[in-house]
Automatic annotation (TrEMBL):
<protein>
    <submittedName>
        <fullName>ThiF family adenylyltransferase</fullName>
    </submittedName>
</protein>
<dbReference type="InterPro" id="IPR000594">
    <property type="entry name" value="ThiF_NAD_FAD-bd"/>
</dbReference>
<keyword id="KW-0808">Transferase</keyword>
<dbReference type="GO" id="GO:0061503">
    <property type="term" value="F:tRNA threonylcarbamoyladenosine dehydratase"/>
</dbReference>
<keyword id="KW-0548">Nucleotidyltransferase</keyword>
<dbReference type="GO" id="GO:0008641">
    <property type="term" value="F:ubiquitin-like modifier activating enzyme activity"/>
</dbReference>
<feature type="domain" description="THIF-type NAD/FAD binding fold">
    <location>
        <begin position="173"/>
        <end position="379"/>
    </location>
</feature>
<dbReference type="InterPro" id="IPR035985">
    <property type="entry name" value="Ubiquitin-activating_enz"/>
</dbReference>
<dbReference type="Pfam" id="PF00899">
    <property type="entry name" value="ThiF"/>
</dbReference>
<dbReference type="GO" id="GO:0016779">
    <property type="term" value="F:nucleotidyltransferase activity"/>
</dbReference>
<dbReference type="InterPro" id="IPR045886">
    <property type="entry name" value="ThiF/MoeB/HesA"/>
</dbReference>
<dbReference type="GO" id="GO:0061504">
    <property type="term" value="P:cyclic threonylcarbamoyladenosine biosynthetic process"/>
</dbReference>
Length: 434
């Protein structure tokens, strides 16, 4: 293992304790993680001889490693430019620093290590001017002190918030208002759910009747910890741990046999993504989403993983449904790829293992999530940077170039966008009551 440049980690409990201490300096104790060249704050002296422990949450397993200890200190220096000097010095390269006596003029409280000992110093400067922060100064800086020399060290500070760090760059608050249903949380749908949570969608409804088993692992975002658990429950656990701002609702419904349960569910969300394999679930989603007046994104791979497909169905008079599109393609004389697939799937209840490799399915899932988010941004927030080039994207995964349009991709990673036809006059999905 390569140890990398030494660095200091300050978990949020250490920041709070340093920031709220009554006195302006004190001692610190660090765990030294030699194999990773890392020093993690372990105890903070907040008033004379009162040491408070720093708890590191269990999920940060590497930060909880308990090796030897290194003594240090912290100094609060309001108004000081010391952390700009840290930034400027570290930029000059490894090993550049200050003679101890020169550094003591900048930070009078610094203690000189004895003999060959090392010490660590944290300088804390709150409320820095904006231009200092723009210049790269950070509220907390770390220094390695020896008897003769002081050098700046990189420091990693635990952020106060999750996705709110993206404020100003991404509509974090608007995302929290969106509700999306994901039908099928297999290899594609698992990626879709994961990505929607990472985009910051506030409410996810996951629908899948299957259990996560050993053979699913080679393609799925879930791992060995989830084997034996219902896919929707395992995804909820995964998403809750990483993205606590996203509210996840699991349902072990079968979208075909329990289509009646989909109606109320779909009418309560802003958009539906269908990543279920098999033709029948896609037809149910196409029909029920249309009747609920909600847009749907259908994602799949076709022709044994040669081609990916992202289809957006919008509940507007100028867009047909899934069956209108398939009828249109069949009338155009092309091979109906989905119908060919249906011969293998039968009613959709017989499962044939997807033949695409995991990363190809994940690629399609990421694009489907992007199309879903873009649809929400454009529809609800009027964001024109979120416009798609069409309603149907076909994606070359391992294209054989012998399929009919729109699946006639020549090269891998080619993405071709197409429009979809208007509703057929007799379509019972697009024209209820006719
Ligand atoms: Zn239709």
């Amino acid at each position: 293992m390569s140890a990398g440049y030494p660095w200091v980690a300050l978990p949020s409990e250490a920041l709070e304790k340093i920031g709220s201490a009554e006195r302006s300096n004190g001692q610190l104790l660090f765990h030294a993680n030699e194999w990773n060249n890392m020093y993690v704050a372990q105890k903070v002296e907040t008033s004379k001889d009162l040491w408070l422990p720093v708890t590191v949450p269990a999920e940060y397993a590497a930060l909880r490693y308990q090796g030897g200890t290194v003594a240090g200190q912290w100094v609060r220096m309001p108004g000081s430019d010391i952390n700009i000097q840290h930034r400027a010095t570290i930029a000059r390269g490894r090993g550049v620093g200050f003679g101890f006596d020169d550094f003591k003029k900048l930070v009078p409280e610094v203690r000189q290590p004895s003999g060959t000992n090392n010490g660590l110093l944290i300088t804390h400067v709150a409320d820095m001017p904006e231009d200092w922060i723009k210049a790269g100064a950070t509220e907390f800086s770390a220094w390695l002190t020896t008897r003769d020399f002081v050098t700046p060290m990189p420091v990693a500070v635990e952020p106060e918030t999750g996705l709110a760090q993206l404020d100003g760059h991404w509509p974090v608050d608007d995302m929290l208002n969106f509700k999306v249903a994901v039908v099928g949380v297999g290899s594609i749908g698992g990626v879709v759910a994961d990505a929607l949570a990472r985009y910051g969608v506030g409410e996810l409804h996951l629908i899948d009747p299957d259990r996560f088993l050993w053979h699913n692992m080679i393609r799925h975002v879930l791992g060995p910890e989830s084997v034996g658990i219902m896919k929707v429950d395992a995804m909820k656990q995964r998403l809750n741990a990483r993205w606590p701002d996203t509210d996840v609702h699991p349902y072990t419904y079968d979208v075909v046999n329990q289509a009646h349960l989909m109606r109320s569910l779909f009418s309560n969300v802003d958009l539906i993504v269908c990543a279920a394999d098999g033709v029948a679930p896609r037809r149910v989603v196409s029909h029920v989403a249309r009747r609920a007046g909600k847009p749907a994104i259908l994602a799949c791979v076709l022709d044994d993983g040669a081609v990916g497909e992202i289809l957006r169905l919008q509940p507007a008079p100028r867009y047909g449904c899934l069956m209108c599109l398939r009828a249109h393609l069949a009338a155009a004389g092309g091979i109906d790829v989905e119908a060919a697939q249906e011969l293998d799937y039968g009613t959709g209840s017989v499962h044939r293992a997807m033949t695409a490799v995991g990363p190809d399915l994940h690629f399609v899932g990421q694009l489907a999530a992007k199309a879903a988010i873009s649809t929400l941004l454009e529809t609800h927030l009027g964001d024109h940077t979120a416009r798609l080039s069409g309603e149907l994207a076909t994606i070359g995964l391992r294209p054989t170039a012998d399929l009919a349009a729109p699946f006639d991709l020549a090269r891998t990673i080619d993405v071709a966008w197409h429009d979809i036809p208007r509703p057929r006059p007799t379509c019972p999905t697009c024209n209820p009551g006719t």
